[in-house]
């Protein structure tokens, strides 16, 4: 069995939505988002339940919170408004869409303080009136082992805030531009990139500029990881929106949506399977909102009390 890694959290937060729908305020810059032709709230509720049950079955500790409000269409994506870090630190982030800002929940922060060793909560949300935004581990893909923060510039990821976060939390910033085949900027780094313990998935062709593309690939490889380059079609299928977690007896598990899993080649799956167990879960209703299973999972990198 592969050894447990600091990259893979053994506990997570999920928020189960009761009134999910694609968010009209995020549609303008999220080309991954689709319009639902019917009310998908029940289907989304069931999809979140599937994720919680699947993670618990493999030994991940799941803190499942309910969102019964009708005003938070994207509350199923808590990784955008908070992140947790070794050493007892929690970050709270400024959100681009106004109707997402009230997703931040004091009860979740209090749960973290009660169940885990939290030394400090650093809240950047007060920067919203200054139009400075950094949407958590959607905007940044964090290498917790080599201490690197990969970040695609966008309306939701201000490079100045990336630098500030990295200075405080001890990461090296690797900021770059990335676009889809139509030249539209990628809205969140975690839809095109996933860092696991041994393997990294990235839509390499989306990175703008031959030199910068080579630099990003080199930075990933020099951490010792195998790089799996995803095609534009695989990125669009959410193959990059995956997360490695730690299950029972330290087993490393790559959680990916069934949509993303179906898009991978046999060779890519073979490389992944040599590193960790691959766990595909059907979250198709959630993907209408332009995010997938990784967006749904807020990893807990804190020591339990």
UniProtKB/TrEMBL annotation:
Signal peptide: none annotated. Pfam families: DDAH_eukar. InterPro entries: Amdntrnsf_FN0238. This is Amidinotransferase.
